[in-house]
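note to self: dont lose this again. the chain is below, predicted strucutre after it. 246 aa total, dont forget to put it in the shared folder this time
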Amino acid sequence: MQMMRGLPWTVHVNGMTSLARERNVFSNTSDNTKNHMYMIGILDMPTHTLGRKMDYLHVWYDHYRFQSGLEEYLGLPCSLVDLLCSIMQPDTEQRLLTWQSEAGIAEECAIWDSTRHAGILMAYNYRIDHVMDGKCCDMELDLIIVSMRHILTTVHSLRTKHGTLVPETWSNLFFPLVAAGSLSQALTEDDKILIHQSISDLENSSLDVCPYYQKASMVLHELWENACGRSIQQMARDLDVEIALF
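---
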């Protein structure tokens, strides 16, 4: 409920994880327990929160990597979730670049591929925030722009085909859209309009009534107007918001 209202929510994820660790729940093999812990692992993903107020706990990374098939809450391949939960590792961008999609229907694969490119952008933002290897060179930025452009080309194609992005089908594009919008220095005005309109689609064209999407759009617009060298995560922290991107 806190998440959907655009209010701080990771404190609850951390509380549930602490309780699970105290009770040694991660070693419980019952399907019901594992499903609940998988959900906590997804909510704890480092890529899918802006302005996170609590420390990452690395639940998926520590306990649930190396599974096969699809993760049921986001519908993403587990191998892709493994990489998204590894953005603190310096080779994650390269591993995302070479990740091979699993078999699926064409538009499902398009979402997975956009998510892969969004992961590359968020890993780039992570390195900026943590100054892992200094200022990125222009050649590397060119490669990052390719990921941003891939996402927006995919979204444009889907909007051309379907008219609007119905949230029941396309909600998983929220994360790629925000990730693409994070590269403010490389966006055209048309790109910004596409991102804003597509996020509006996910809330039935009315951002004013849904803090979940409205606050993400607010952070993007502030970034586009007043970045001053800040990453999207830095901007969210400066605005004192915590936003989920599921």
